[in-house]
Structure formats: C-alpha cells, structure tokens
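Subject: Sanity check before I submit

Could someone independently write out the structure tokens for this chain? I want to compare against mine line by line before I put it in a report. The sequence has 393 residues.
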Amino acid sequence: MLRVLMCAAALAFTATGGASAQEPIKEPIKIGLIQSLTGPFNMVGKAAVDGARLYVQQHGDTVAGHRIELIIKDDGTAPDRAKRIAQELIVNDKVAIIGAGITPSALTIAPLVTEGKIATVVMVSGASITVDRSPYMVRTSFTLGQSSEVMAGWLAQNGARKIVTLVNDWAPGIESETVFKDRIARNDSKSEAKVADSLRMPLANPDFAPFLQRARDLAPDSLFVFPANQAGIFAKQFLERGMDKSGIRLVGTGDLTDDDELPSMTDAALGIITAHHYSALHDSALNKSFVAAFEKAYGRRPNYHAVAGYDGMHLIYEALKKTGGKTDGDTLIAAMKGMSWESPRGPISIDPQTRDIVQNEYIRKVEKRDGQLYNVEFATVEAVKDPMKAARK
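---
Independent answer below. Compare away.
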C-alpha cells in the first residue's frame, strides 16, 4: 500500500510540479498586414510587407514567449476590399494587431479597429487625419506635411522668389500643397518667396505634358511637385521637355525621387532636390546593414515604405515585450506611446499625444555614387512633428 501511494505521489508531481517547471505553451500572436499588393499602388504595399518580413527574419518569430504569425492580405488598392479583409481578420482569424496600408484603406478600417479595440500600426498612409480616426492607430510611416513644410522652409532660405506648386488632385496632394503654401506664407525667414500659382492634375494621369507646359508658361524659378505614385514618369517627362535647362528648379517631397525608382531614371535626374525622412544612402551603420540585408533578400533597393514596414514590426515587438505579451488594444497602444529608437532612417519616436511619428527630415540632392543615382543628404532638420496637428494647438 505504501508503495502504491509513493507511485501515485510521483505521478502527481510529474503531472503538476514537473509541468510547471517548463515554459507553458502560449497562443501565437497573429498580425494581419492589409496592404496593396496588386493595383496601382502594388509596389508600395510590397515594399512595406518586405520590410516587415525582413524584421521578422532578423529578429526571430517569437516575442514574450509567443510565436508571431504574419497574415498578409492584398486589398487590391480598393478600400471596400480592405474593409472586408479587416472584418475577416478580426472575426475569423482573431488577429491581435493590424498593419494598415494606403490612406483610403486605412481610413476605411478605422471604425472596425476602434470597435474591436485592435492595435493598428499605420505603415504606409501619410495623411495627417489617418490616426485621428481611431485611438487604436499609431503611425510608423510619415505625414505628408513633414516633408512639404521642410522643403518650403529650405526654398525660402535658398533664393526662391516665384514658386508654382503642381500636385495630384486628391487628399494627399492637397494636404501636401496646403502645408507647403502655409509655410511659405508665414515667411518667418523674411524671404521674398511667394507661391505664384497652384496647379492640380488628375491622380490617374500618365501624360503630364499639358500641366508641365502651363507651369513653364508661368516662368517660376522653382516648381514644387507631388506626383503621387507616378514620380518616375513625371520626372522623365519634365526632363524630356527640357525643363531642367529652362532655369526652373524642380523640388518636391521624397516621392519625386523614390529610391525604388531612381535606378531606372537617367542622369538628367541629377540635381533634383527633395526633402524626405529616408534615403537608402543614409549614412549610419544600421542603415548600411539594413540596405545590404534588404537587397540580398529581395534583389532591389529599399525605399521609405520598406523602412516603415521594418519599423512597424520593431514597434510591435518592443510593445509586446513591454506588455509581457498582452495584446489588448489599450495596453498595447499605451506601451507604444512615447517609444523611441534608432531606425535605419535615423532617430524616431512616437508622439504620446498624437500617436504620430516624430523623425528627422533631410534635404537631399540626386547625385551619382558608385555609378548609381542616389538621394544624397546634405542638411538635416531634427525631430519634425506633423505640422498640421501642431498648427491646431
């Protein structure tokens, strides 16, 4: 009888005490990336997804004892499809976190993530209003105003007098134009810079010739452009029309000389000046390592969407570490607010009040390095916040 009791005790120990000595099996944490992998913005979504995947490859797929499971969905650049995907991810797949893409899709899913209290990292959208639409949204991409305001300030300080703006006639283009014009109008540098006219072109428009001709007829010394997802085509037509030799200085946000498109541009692009938060040639050890790893993995140069996806995963990983793996939206968002780290683009942080990214903006000039075209940074404006939100205060 005594022997039977001892055996029973041993079995009880194995079933209880022995099991507790091992790490308990935890549920995987599912992260749904809703990105545009087909349609006109397909390269945008692919870059963000590739950046996110690279981060997981480099840092492992386990955080706080949970395995990370990426569920990648294509919204086809269609907001209605993004909404349907978000519903399926929340209800059927039980995702804990969502990685949002282009502005129309991000705005469409905002009510859903709010209702479900799903922490959502905005990895692509640059519209200022996006994170305002849900208290469960945090941004690792950029805001259009950050680059536009810095570019306007640089022009005002560097001899511009007569400026014409030329942007796509949709919300992001209008936002970029608004911030640019507001900065010029402030004239706090006491310059003579003025916006002589503001031109707008359709979003889906491969022929920029009539708009470029109208801009040329206005005879500005500087032309500020935001050509959305057709920067390569725009720059090509600008140069084909000889406008680079007309004395008009072509400037814009970093979209104009996207690292993804620069390699296919001709040497006529040399000298184009832009303001942006990332260049593949950014001089830091972290960025050199990031670029080398990205090129090895995907066979192309990373751009600002790729680094936003990469940083989006960093934010998620670090927030999960802080919460010990807790994934409820309120706890995760609280952990993300105020977080700061060194990114391949430079030092960045999450504004605890707005949940927007705070980052350096760089003035860059297209130059040739090692036989290739690059955005070479030559000036830095540190810790730039979203100017549209700052203007409300």
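---
OP: Matches mine. For the report I'm noting this point. The first helix runs from residue 2 to 15.
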